[in-house]
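Cross-check.
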Amino acid sequence: MNTSATPTKKIDTKVLLSSLWIAVMINMLKADIFSLNIPGSAEEVARTAASTGASIPQLMLIGAIMGQLGIAMIILSRVLKHGINRWGNIVVAIVNIAYIWGGAASYPHYTFIAMVETLCLLLIIGLAWTWRNIEA
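Predicted model, tokenized:
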């Protein structure tokens, strides 16, 4: 009987980054879906539009772009070369954190989900920051 510990297999950084982006995107969708069920949420969007000087369609466009950035990172994290991959993950994660908290709603579910998203994004930043290219 072999009593030595079984070596643990290291998860590929690209796969881990991609998986974290999937978690972020699912949480973003959940926050939006939950928010749709709160009475007055449409009025809150209208107030946000008025206070920022943007129209509701412009706010929706910004939301769509931010959503697409995260979706793109699911794929790009797996296919980009190391250097651009590292910096792409760092930059897009920072932009997403700013987006999440810049447009934060005061609902408890939103705050909780935003904290989970932020934790995932900080993990993405940390992983990308410390990621060394062993292929070079």
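The mean pLDDT is 88. The CA atoms of residues 69 and 92 lie 7 Å apart. Passed to J.P. for a second look.
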